[in-house]
Design brief:
Number of helices: 3
Radius of gyration: 16 Å
Largest sheet: 6 strands, antiparallel
Strand order of the largest sheet: 1-2-4-5-6-3
Distance between the termini: 28 Å
Number of strands: 6
Length: 168
Amino acid sequence: MTPDAAPIWHGDARLEPVREYSRGTLSHHCGIELTELGRDYIRGTMPVQKTLTQPMGLLHGGASMVLAETLGSIGASLVIDREKFMCVGQEINANHLLAAYPGDVITGTARPIHIGSRSQVWGIELRDQRGRLTCISRLTMAVIARRDRPPASGDAAASGPAQGAAAK
């Protein structure tokens, strides 16, 4: 993207409302914090805690995928008209390239590869605090018409703006 290009985000895209409706979700329990919304990317961090490791003591690959999918899903939802549409995950893959351990902080950056009217593809790079690539992921999202559903018992996210992509 050229420096003078317009941001890709729809409407008044800001991180604070996303942070608010992410409370109590999986990303919140993993310690994921959204840190930056650039012109064409979204960035967040996840501290590697003991609870996110596999039995060998290193970061569980599924935790890396939670960070990747969280960033890609939120990014996807911020480029659409959220009153008319929502994004839902179709496919995610990841290549785990370097181990991370408790005490490390992983930073993820998600950028769109394709933004279409019916689908989006996002590329997500995860790096440790030294800037080393630990995981690379690709996320495919479907863009569908919004169909609000009544909230299930105890399901606060079902009726809020996090329904769909950002609620993952």
